[in-house]
Amino acid sequence: MHYLLAAIGAVTLAVMLWRAYASSERVGVPAKRPQVAPDDDPDFLRKLSEQQRKKKKDDDEE
Question: Hey, where are the domains in the chain?
């Protein structure tokens, strides 16, 4: 019985230490981009600009 309790305690301690000291950046896992408001997001602004240019070009052709 003592061996079972010791094993459970060792596993619990190992998991707690792993979670406390594990690196937040894992190999192969891309880092999450911070939350950015749409008006500050360069990708969003670029896509919006492209859509506006395309729409204007389509309107000019008609």
Answer: 38-62
